[in-house]
Amino acid sequence: MTSIAEPGVVVIGAVADLELGESRAYVVDGRQIAVFRMTDGTLRATDAVCPHRGGPLADGQFDAAKIVCPLHQYAFDFADGACTSEGIGSVTVYRVEARGGDIVVWL
Helix or strand or coil: residue 9? Predict the structure, then answer.
């Protein structure tokens, strides 16, 4: 992990480490962040742990709009992190982009 001159911005890995349609969890400044590479090559990032029972969100199925926790199938919106079921809570959504072949995330 490398910091960039912009405050709160870090490089967490290489885009080439994620195939299209894959995801992976990274530890960034003590936080677990899941990064998802869409089939169109764009990136999304959220907390890596489901607020319901700690499920590994990076292992869940996802599409352009949401990630589904593999443990109990709760879905979280990539736009705002909200869960589609009431009472579960939400996940943090992080700004993420590919820059020079690197995955860059804003904390």
Answer: strand
